[in-house]
Amino acid sequence: MNYPNLSESRRIEMLQPPQGRVRMVLDTDTYNEIDDQFAVVHAILSPKELNLEAIYAAPFHNNRSTGPEDGMEKSYDEILRLLNFLQVKSKNFVYKGSQGFLSNGETPLQSEAASDMVERAMDGSDEPLYVVAVGAITNVASAILIEPEIIKKIVVVWLGGNPHYWSHTREFNLAQDIHAARVVLDSGVPFVHLPARGVVSHLLTTVSEMERYVEGQGKIGDYLVQIFKDYHKDHFGWSKVIWDMSATAYLVNSSWVPTDIVHSPILTDTATWSFDNSRHLMRVATSVNRDAIFRDLFQKLQQAE
C-alpha cells in the first residue's frame, strides 16, 4: 500500500502534546470487559477538554462474544446503555464498526464507523481529529485504507500491544487484528502508542475506592461500581486495571501520560517488535500518573451528579 507522504516535520508538529480543547472520536470495544465503560464516561464528562464528536463500536472476540461481529454489536448496545444513564442522545453520535477483522493489509472493511471517521477527518477543519482507539484497531485501519489522505488530518492514540522492550506484544487489542495494527504503524499517521504491560497496567483501583468515590454518583456511578464488582468474585486483596482511561487522560492532560518520541517499530508476524531507525517517528507512553487520572474521573462524576 502506498501512503501519502507526510513530512517528518509535519508529523512532529501534529505529535506535540495536545493543548486546549481538542476534537476527538472514540473507538471502543465497550463490552469486551469493564474498562472501556470508564473511558467512555471520562470522555463524555470532560467537555471542557474534549470535543467528543462520535463514538464507534469496535469488534472483539473473547468469552463475552461469539465472534467479532457479535462483540461489535454488544459493544454498540453497551455504548447506548451508558449514554442512557448519562442522558446523552445517541443519534448521529454512535456508529457501528466492522463485523470482523482485516484479512490482509490492503483490503478495508466497510462500516458506518470507518465512513464517519473519513468524513470527519476530511471535513476541511484546520484542527487535527484525534482518533482515540481502545480496542482492536480495525475501524481505524479500514478508514486509512479507504482514504489514505486522512493520515494528514488525524492523530491516532491507541492502547494496544506491549512496550517496545517487551519480549512479545501479544496483548489482546493488538493480537485481535495484527493486520490492522501493522497498517496503522506502517502508514506514517501521527501515532501515540499506549503500551499495556508495565505502563498502562499501573491504572489500578479497588472495590473500596469505587464504593467511596463512585457509588451513589447517579445511575452511571452505580452501574460502574456494579460491573466492577461483578468482574471478579473474590475482592479480598484484589485490584483491577482500568486500562482504557489512559487514552482519554492523555488528551485531558498529557502530563498525566508522559511520552517519548521514538522511531516506529516493525510489527512481525509472530507479534514481536523489530526495529529500524530509518522509520518515521511516533510517540510512546512511558508511565501514567495513576492518582491524577482517577482523581479527575472521581471529581467529574461528583460534579455531574
Give the tags.
11 helices; 305 residues; 12 strands; Inosine-uridine Nucleoside N-ribohydrolase, Chain A; alpha/beta; 8-stranded mixed sheet; two-stranded antiparallel sheet; 17% strand
What does this protein structure show overall?
The chain is of the alpha/beta class. The chain has one domain: Ribonucleoside hydrolase-like (Inosine-uridine Nucleoside N-ribohydrolase, Chain A), CATH 3.90.245.10. It is 37% helix and 17% strand. The strands form 3 sheets. The chain has an 8-stranded mixed β-sheet, with helices on both faces. A two-stranded antiparallel ribbon has the order 7-8. Strands 10-11 form a two-stranded antiparallel ribbon. Helix 5 crosses helix 7. It is globular.
Q: Could you give the topology of this structure?
A:
Blueprint: H1 8-14, E1 22-28, H2 35-44, E2 50-57, H3 68-86, E3 94-96, H4 112-121, E4 129-133, H5 138-146, E5 154-159, H6 172-176, H7 178-187, E6 191-194, E7 204-205, H8 207-213, H9 218-230, E8 240-241, H10 245-252, E9 259-263, E10 266-267, E11 273-274, E12 281-285, H11 290-304
Parallel strand pairs: 1-2, 1-4, 2-3, 4-5, 5-6, 6-12
Antiparallel strand pairs: 7-8, 9-12, 10-11
Q: Strands of the largest sheet, in order across it?
A: 3-2-1-4-5-6-12-9
What fraction of the residues are assigned to beta strands by DSSP? 15-25%
CATH architectural category: Alpha-Beta Complex
* Count of discrete domains: 1
Output the CATH topology.
Answer: Inosine-uridine Nucleoside N-ribohydrolase, Chain A
- Count of alpha/pi helices: 11
Tally of strands? 12
The CATH homologous superfamily corresponds to Ribonucleoside hydrolase-like
Distance between the termini: 49 Å
The H/E string reads HEHEHEHEHEHHEEHHEHEEEEH
CATH class: Alpha Beta
Oligomer: single chain
Main beta-sheet strand count, sense and barrel state:
8 strands, mixed
Radius of gyration: 18 Å
Backbone structural class: alpha/beta
